[in-house]
Amino acid sequence: MDSPLAVAGFVLSKIPVLLKTVLFHTLSLSPTCHKWTLRTELTVTMLREFFTNAPPSTITKQQAMFLTDHGVKGSIWVSKAAFPEPPDAALRNVLYKAIRDLGAGGEEYTKPNLQPVEGEWVGYRAGVKANAPEPTGLSEREKYEHLVRDMKTDMTLLYFHGGSYYLMDPVSTRPLMEKYATLSGGSVFLVRYRLAPQSPFPAALLDALVAYLSLLYPPPGSFHKPIPASRIVLGGDSARGNLASVLLQTLLQLHRNVPAGETPTVTFHGATVPVPLPLPAAATLSSPSMDLTRCMQGSESQAIWDYLPPPSFSPAHSSPPCAIWPSDPACAELFCEGSALCHPLVPPRSPFVGGAFAQRAARDGVRIVWEQYEAMPHCFSQVLEGSVEGEACFASWEKFMRVVGEKPSEVATRGAFITARTVERTSVDVCNLLDMSQEDILNYMQRGRRAIVERFTKTMAS
């Protein structure tokens, strides 16, 4: 669906499905009607049809569909910026060492070059209506200066938007960034990382690392002044909740690698930067995709609660061939080589999957705030903005950000299960979220990785 006419035709073709959804919900015949509102039923149904029953489309067309910039309007400042690539390979080599040290050996991956990292500074624009046009005649630096003047706090959210690991949709993400900037009172830097399959693992991670260092140690020509790590929060949703997590894991690995009594350094745009790098104040994740082997996403029967395709579906095997996929040289998955699917920096620190990620971190002494919303689909707070569940999620996020910014010592590990519709909260023990061992989870992931590689091998042989 690469044209507005095709999209309109697809929507019209789904009117019978939507009418059936309304009827079944009204008569309490749908299996989800007691947990979902009619709005949720209709939204999930339409998204599910789009993701699973739309005409097949190439990866190239899917990427292009999300890259059109429709401009900026409303109570939001957007200042486009680009951080130049470091002139030497020191940072790149630091990342490769972390990958080697964390791997089991045998993982294959392409070593990407350093490139400029583009992005957008986003902030709340005070005193304008929702449909107000973006001011004309301002340079990107001037927009940034206006953004800073409207900030109420000095917190910066370094954000990696979702859209799986091969799509980028920064334009539709802007309203979400505006909301985060408004709730936190600070700024957001939305990173435009490199996409797979053109730039597979670890290109996006290298971009994320460059972006983080650029906030700490601004390269020449940057709009911003140095931002202390204590004022930076990493954030991400969906697949790039994964990226935020692996960036944090990379930073932690740099701390582990420091020999006793030594203070290693790395050169970054001519400045001598200490390694390990300072850690950010916190990380916030929304529906993070922690398992690229798709072995831990629940059974096919649980698909009724989401719009995402079931675990058996893969865009790598369902998309028609195009210039960028299948890749050359051939690769088992869009994001990485099949051998790397279980590397700790692909899913963050295997076997951390979903609740296991929070559980292991809490058991290791990391202060974790965990919330699980009953019967809610993927990234529900964004997809169902304005719903009682979505607003409850945003309210919790705002509270967390304010505590991190004003009284970080008061952040304490806690967990909650929030019921659908009533949003009643029940405390849960974050240290005991799953009745599975780490070894069991890793075995599941390895089994999923082998299945993906075997399917790829059969496809190549046919």
UniProtKB/TrEMBL annotation:
<keyword id="KW-0378">Hydrolase</keyword>
<dbReference type="InterPro" id="IPR050300">
    <property type="entry name" value="GDXG_lipolytic_enzyme"/>
</dbReference>
<comment type="similarity">
    <text>Belongs to the 'GDXG' lipolytic enzyme family.</text>
</comment>
<dbReference type="InterPro" id="IPR013094">
    <property type="entry name" value="AB_hydrolase_3"/>
</dbReference>
<protein>
    <submittedName>
        <fullName>Acetyl-hydrolase</fullName>
    </submittedName>
</protein>
<dbReference type="InterPro" id="IPR002168">
    <property type="entry name" value="Lipase_GDXG_HIS_AS"/>
</dbReference>
<feature type="domain" description="Alpha/beta hydrolase fold-3">
    <location>
        <begin position="157"/>
        <end position="292"/>
    </location>
</feature>
<dbReference type="Pfam" id="PF07859">
    <property type="entry name" value="Abhydrolase_3"/>
</dbReference>
<dbReference type="InterPro" id="IPR029058">
    <property type="entry name" value="AB_hydrolase_fold"/>
</dbReference>
<dbReference type="GO" id="GO:0016787">
    <property type="term" value="F:hydrolase activity"/>
</dbReference>
